User: Fold Antibiotic biosynthesis monooxygenase from Paenibacillus piri.
Amino acid sequence: MSKFGMYVKFTAHAGQRDALAKLLLESAESANAFEECELYIVNISDTEPETVWVTEVWSNEAAHDASLGLDETKAAIQRAMPLIAGVEPIKLQPIGGKGL
Amino acid sequence: MSKFGMYVKFTAHAGQRDALAKLLLESAESANAFEECELYIVNISDTEPETVWVTEVWSNEAAHDASLGLDETKAAIQRAMPLIAGVEPIKLQPIGGKGL
Assistant:
C-alpha cells in the first residue's frame, strides 16, 4: 500500500502562532502512540510570521483518516480552532528518499 | 543551532515528471553520505501531474548551503535542468515533532 503524506499550512490569528505551534507539538507527542504515523514535524517560517507548516507521513491514507476519528484528535482540534485563521493541506504520495 | 528545512516544489516539463522523480531519488541516495542531511523525501502529487515535492531537513542551514557547492550536487542539477519548468522553494524552521 502506498504511503500517504501531507504538508498542512496553518495560518494563525495575529499573535497566536506560537500558541498554535505548541498545540501542534502536543499533537506530535500524541502521534508517538501511532506506529503508522511515521513523521509529524512542526515547522515555523522566517518569512510568514503567522504560518505553521506540519509535515506528515503515514504508512497509508486509511491510518491517517482513522486518526481523525479518535476522541483525542477531535479534542486537539477543538483546542486549536480558536487560534486558526486558515488551513491549506497539500496531499502527497511519498515515493522514497532518505528518512522514509 | 537551528535545524533547517525546505519544501521544494519542482514542476516538470510535460511528461517528464517520472524522469525527474527518478533523478531526485538518486540525489536522495547521495544524501545518505551526509550525516547533516536528516530527511530528503521525494513525493509526487495525485492532483498535480507535473509536480514533484521534496521535503528536506538539515541539521543546520550552513550544511545545506555547503551541499550545493559540491561537484556531485552541481552535476545532479545539470542532469535535472532539462526536465524542470519551475522550482519554488519554501524555507522552514523545523521546531520539533515525531521523526525529527
Notes: The first strand of chain B starts at residue 4 and ends at 12. Residues 4-92 of chain B form a domain with the Alpha-Beta Plaits fold (CATH 3.30.70.100). Chain B touches chain A through 35 residues (CB under 8 Å).
